[in-house]
Amino acid sequence: MVQILAKKIPPRLPLGTLISFLQVGIIASLVDLGLLYVFTEYFGIWYLLSAAASYICGMIVSYTLNKRFTFHNVNKQYIWQFFLFAIVSTSGLIVNISVMFFAVTFFSIYYLYAKVISMCITFFWNYSFQSRITFQV
């Protein structure tokens, strides 16, 4: 039984992959934070709706850069792969929005600070699942 389970657990990913994922994450996060600010402050959109829209934009940047630079993935099934990426990212979005809501509503944290906190929490979640499900490293 233990041997069967051991075969199902993927091997550890190289540190370089984690560092590349972090670098791509920083770029995508800057897109996310920048658009969150613009949507909320300049267009007057409610911060949680802005957060969802900006997260989706950051997700597209993240997919594109991770596919090419982090995982050097050559899979040509872009639509299916992006669908998997979006599924994992949507679970991260739920965590992200929840953390923001609780931080702003119950702890009176400024929404951009709450976003940074939520990004830190979702980073490892996304890395774990994107590397093993979407890009199958």
* N-to-C SSE string, H for helix and E for strand: HHHHH
In total, the number of strands is: 0
Low-confidence stretches: 1-11
Strand content: under 5%
Helix content: over 70%
What would you report as the Rg, rounded to the nearest angstrom? 16 Å
> DSSP helix count?
5
Shape: elongated
Mean pLDDT: 84
Task: Name a few traits of the molecule.
mainly alpha, disordered N terminus, 137 residues, elongated
What would you note in describing this structure?
Mean pLDDT is 84; it is low at 1-11. The chain is built from 5 helices and no strands. The chain is elongated and about 45 Å long. It has one domain. It is an all-alpha fold and 137 residues long.
Short description:
By secondary structure, the chain is mainly α. It is built from five helices and no strands.
Q: How do the helices and strands line up, and which of them pair or pack?
A:
Elements: H1 2-8, H2 15-42, H3 47-70, H4 78-107, H5 111-134
Helix pairs in contact: 2-3, 2-5, 3-4, 4-5
